[in-house]
Amino acid sequence: MNYQFASLTQKRTYDTVLETLKQSRQNFESIVADTNDNSKRILSNELIQDFASGIYNKLTDYDKIYWNVNNWLDDLPGTQKYYKSISLYTGQEPFFQKGVQVPEIDPAVRERVMSLQGRALWITAPGEIEYYRGIMDLNMYGRMIGIVRFNLDEENLYRIFSNLQYNAGAQIFLLDSKGLVLSSTERNLVGSKLDYVANIQEIFNTKEGYLEKTIDDDKKVAFYYTIEEPDWKLVQIIPEKSFSTLRRTINLILLIAILLCLFFGVLFSFVQHKYLLKPLQLLRKEMMKLKSGNFNIALTVDSKDEIGDISNGFLRMVHQLKEMINDVYVGRIKQREAEIKALEAQINPHFLYNTLDSIHWLALKQKNYDVSEQIEALAELFKHVLNKGEPFVTIRQEVDFLENYMLIQKRKYGQRVKLRIHVDPVLMNYKMPKLVLQPLVENAIVHGLEQVIDGGVIEVSVTRAEQGIRFIVIDNGLGTDEAKIHQMMNQEGEKKNVFALKNIDDRIKISYGPEYGLHFTSKHGVGTRVEVYIPLIE
């Protein structure tokens, strides 16, 4: 197992070294691609076409065209850093040269370039890396009018791989297809043929990889990849003992890792039992108690991890469940008490309603129509209060009840109290709790307008709202201390002083939930505004 692990680790290490070496590939390919592109731009440039063809006045225009070509070449990618020189030829001697001085073109090379009909040619020699391409006459197919020659800067190639991370004793070589060292970290070997190239001849048969060889009686590993178009190889030679040291280190790390795994395995088992299994067992025990209906949960939570969060969540759930059960239980008791009180309260109104009905007919018989009208309105009030024991009425019925109430009050206050009612007709048949508007209007009269000599106006509106239906009762009376009213509504001993407001608010919250109810605002000398919200129920 250790051997297999070591072999696998060694393979992965070799792969990593190769990938690191290949990080330089893009830079080499960029130089090759830019050189190809630059040569194509040169041979297609109209100025250079004329220059190579000799279509200019050599006495007057030569210097101008020469510097125009020179300036244009400055704008080509890489001309400042890739190349030692760029030369243009029509014969063996250059007619244009930029950069260091280069010798005349070799006749054999010139003949070979011309025969390629515009295709590129890479030539390598000791100390020289050259690129050639024939310049074709764009106005006459097949006619060659010159050659462009690039001399690449070896220092620039060296900088590409000189900063690669490699092991101690490692060497990097850029080789051509014949084993000539074009560039290297071993600077004294640049321009010479690699002595042991025969030992690593296999690298020239494949594109990339690594192989183990004995070189100068020392085991070494050669890593390499191919730069396609010039058919160059970048080779890194690393002593095998560098990896042997790594293997020994890996074996030691593996042994330490196994011992640490055993130690932490035992430690984790202990921690798991104390901080995971035991708290979960206690939590499960308390959950079983809750399942059986026992809400007396005894669970102490000390941890702040996920188990602690779950335990705290369980305790909150139990607490909320108990509160919910108590709320439902207490709510049902209150509802039952209200029903009993309502039944008790119906006895007297029912008797009074029958009596008032008898008096109404008696008044009609005596032709006392004013008394009859008042008694009929009062009877309608009692009839609305009874409503056959139903707690809900339509908005139309509630508004009729309010108008009957005001018919009676006008006998007392005359024109001092004016009531204006605005109801959205669409809402008339929607349901609402009975006795909501009349107590609010009565409060407005008694506490807001009664002591005002000139009286005032009460406005009642029923409209749609985002929550459902909104009832608004506004008066321009004396106003009151808004904060004191809110305080009395929330204090048990003071609720009798705001009975009407508290009664309406409680009935609505019990019927529809805490998000509905009564909102009270008031200001001394300005008036009072009461808003009531209920859901939309047909």
Automatic annotation (TrEMBL):
The keyword Glycosyltransferase does not apply. The chain crosses the membrane at residues 250-271. It is found in: Cell membrane. It is a multi-pass membrane protein. InterPro entries: Bact_2-comp_sensor_kinase (IPR050640), HAMP_dom (IPR003660), HATPase_C_sf (IPR036890), HATPase_dom (IPR003594), Sig_transdc_His_kin_internal (IPR010559). Residues 274-326 form the HAMP domain. GO terms for molecular function: protein histidine kinase activity. Keywords: ATP-binding, Cell membrane, Kinase, Membrane, Nucleotide-binding, Phosphoprotein, Transferase, Transmembrane, Transmembrane helix, Two-component regulatory system. Its EC number is 2.7.13.3. It comes from the Bacteria. This is Sensor histidine kinase. It comes from Paenibacillus terreus.
